[in-house]
Amino acid sequence: MQRRQLPPAHPITGQERRRIDPNRGVIKVVERNLDIFVSRFLFPHLARLWNPYSWQLERRFTLSQTQIAPAGWPKTVAPLRLLLLTDIHAGIFLQPQTFARIIHKLMELEPHLVALGGDLVSGNSNEAKPILGAMKPLTAAPLGAWFCFGNHDYFSATPEIIEHDLNAIGIRALCNDAVRINHGAGSFVLGGIDDLILGKPNWPQLCTRHGEPHLLLAHNPDHFYQAIVHNVPLTLSGHTHGGQIRLPNGPPLIRQSRYCLDEGMYSFENSLLVVSRGLGSVLLPWRWGADPEAILIEITPPRGDS
């Protein structure tokens, strides 16, 4: 497994915008329907002729690592080792045995908590079933494995199947919900917000039981500015695939973030955002310049934090 250190958080101004909003409009509708068509009806037939993604995944999968001390993180919480795994995109491109080998290697890192950042499937809720056995080891994390919904999880309009299947192996979905987790002498609030595009995000509901979360699972990184409004110290996202196809030292060809939050770490005011390239692939069974990854995050309280 290749390893790399994530670059330091990139400070953003809050003014970054793409000319075309990738979260809405005609272009988004066309892209979504093309994605659904390809995922459900085209590639299941073409895969017999050309389906290189699992081969590429085994050779290019990367573990990215970082150590952070978010402002506002509870100072009594013990150092936390968190594994972020997003955009698995189970389905025609992902062979369960390849995925199982990656999960086995990742769990040798002994994370305290596993965060699954959405898009478990590609086009159909039942695509998760063949990889559930491979995902079971994730529940060995002592603080649990937690999931938030992404846009692809709504493509077949039956996200409850995904939630049921994950719950059956011990992985809990957080949809506009939060939980308080004890770790060491302290505790923190973990929340999950529903998908920005096809879900129904509900911030008041999310913050009702335990207050504003310290750690937020939000599939789409464009939730970040709303998370800042709610004083969230750390947000974890995916969705963008890092562009999936990038020219050397160039911008992503597929641009999924309105605010240019394409991959890596970002900081604004007192909040941090981590955006993973994710593991899977959509539309094409190929990545270039944005290798698949999981991210191991070591979280400690900032010095002098109250």
Care to describe what's here?
The radius of gyration is 18 Å and the shape is globular. It has a single domain, classed as Metallo-dependent phosphatases (Purple Acid Phosphatase, chain A, domain 2), CATH 3.60.21.10. 46% of the residues are buried. The termini are far apart. The strands form 2 sheets. A 7-stranded mixed beta sheet has the order 1-3-14-4-5-6-7, with helices on one face. Strands 2-12-13-11-10-9-8 form a 7-stranded mixed beta sheet. The chain contains 7 helices and 14 strands. By secondary structure, the chain is α/β, with parallel strands linked by helices.
Major beta sheet summary: 7 strands, mixed
Which segments are poorly predicted (pLDDT under 50) over 5 or more consecutive residues?
A: none
Number of strands: 14
Structural class call reads: alpha/beta
Give a brief rundown of this model:
The protein has 306 residues and is α/β, with parallel strands linked by helices. Helices cover 21% and strands 22% of the residues. The chain has a seven-stranded mixed sheet, with helices on one face. Strands 2-12-13-11-10-9-8 form a seven-stranded mixed sheet.
What is the topological layout?
Blueprint: E1 2-5, E2 10-11, H1 26-46, H2 53-60, E3 62-68, E4 80-85, H3 96-107, E5 113-116, H4 132-135, E6 145-147, H5 159-168, E7 172-173, E8 177-183, E9 186-192, H6 203-206, E10 215-217, H7 224-229, E11 234-237, E12 264-268, E13 271-275, E14 293-299
Parallel strand pairs: 1-3, 2-12, 3-14, 4-5, 5-6, 6-7, 9-10, 10-11, 11-13
Antiparallel strand pairs: 4-14, 8-9, 12-13
